[in-house]
Amino acid sequence: MSDNLLEIKDLSIEFRTYDGVVKAINHMTFSVPKGKTVGLVGETGAGKTTTALAIMGLVPNPPGVVTSGSIVFDGTDLLKIRESEMYGYRGKKIGMIFQNPMTSLNPVYTVGHQISDVIKKHQKVDKNEAWKRAGDMLEIVGIPRERLNNYPHEFSGGMKQRACIAMGLSCNPQLLIADEPTTALDVTIQAQILELMKGLKEKYKTSTIFITHALGVVAEIADYVVVVYAGSVIEKGSIREIFEHPTHPYTQGLFGCLPDIESEESEKLHVIKGSMPDPMDLPKGCKFCPRCDKAMDICREEEPEDILICGEHSVKCHLYRKEGTE
């Protein structure tokens, strides 16, 4: 039996529009071990949310088309099952916390109604039992069960996010996908949400994909890091391997953007020049080449292969193949 709950292999997704083909995901490969948290890191537009939607079977079609690859969850390729079968996975086995808590909840139904509805659908219990379990879930995330009858507009931003987490965990899924769940919250509430999620992970042993662009958040919650750029995984490894030895110039650039509070010198923060390439017109070789200070001729012609550094740490970069070490 594999130690991985989820294995994504060679996944490619494109959106076929009237203006042209948008290559959103390009041969993406990574896995999520059982009971562990994988941090999916990258700039806005890197393909993180599209990957999450693909796992949930929610990529809009048309215009979205999966052109290659597999998404194997607990031994089953989710891309090969019917939509009716996907209902048994979505919500029950795979939960998702969407990006904006302000718009994730339906404003015309009470919070209790929305959580209990998920429980009734997947756990086959009556209305009273579902309501009781919804109250239990709210209390687990730090909200009194008396708030079940409140509407979303009566909750603060932090409470909305807690309610979304309660809904995502209400059926005790094997995999939880958290799509930037702390982005819209202030720093204090962010810290509370991260502590809450770490506690729930320990309690329920849930595997988690935590999508974010903040390396500080990844350091707090993740066991493994997957760095995504222009729809491809360019570096991945354990949290220690990536944070102690970032190898890809893009990953190094992300760390260079962080202020060093231990440094006595007042240095300017590093800035990665340029912007993400147009997914309708991707560069021929390495997708990061136009922004890379270390680019070579081969980078403009050939896309780099996945190269193992050591342990579970791998990188897609011609520099490593040439120099041997970073």
Explain what the structure shows.
The chain is an alpha/beta fold. The chain contains 12 helices and 12 strands. A hairpin with a 2-residue loop joins strand 9 and strand 10 (232-238). The longest helix is centred in the middle third of the chain and has 18 residues, at 187-204. The two termini are 35 Å apart.
List the helices and strands and how they pair.
Blueprint: E1 4-17, E2 20-33, E3 37-41, H1 48-56, E4 64-73, E5 76-77, H2 83-86, E6 94-97, H3 101-104, H4 111-123, H5 127-140, H6 157-169, E7 175-179, H7 187-204, E8 207-212, H8 215-221, E9 224-229, E10 232-238, H9 239-244, H10 249-256, H11 297-301, E11 306-310, E12 313-316, H12 318-323
Parallel strand pairs: 3-8, 3-9, 6-7, 7-8
Antiparallel strand pairs: 1-2, 1-4, 4-5, 9-10, 10-12, 11-12
Descriptors for this entry?
single chain; 326 residues; alpha/beta; eight-stranded mixed sheet; 12 strands
Individual helix count: 12
**Widest β-sheet, arrangement of strands:** 6-7-8-3-9-10-12-11
Major beta sheet summary: 8 strands, mixed
Number of E-state strands: 12
Radius of gyration: 21 Å
The 3D shape can be described as: globular
The string of secondary-structure elements, in order, is EEEHEEHEHHHHEHEHEEHHHEEH
Helical content class = 25-40%
User: Assembly state here?
Assistant: single chain
Q: Would you tell me the structural class of the helices and strands? A: alpha/beta
Q: Overall pLDDT, averaged?
A: 90
**Terminal Cα span:** 35 Å
Q: Strand content of the residues, in percent?
A: 25-35%
Low-confidence stretches: none
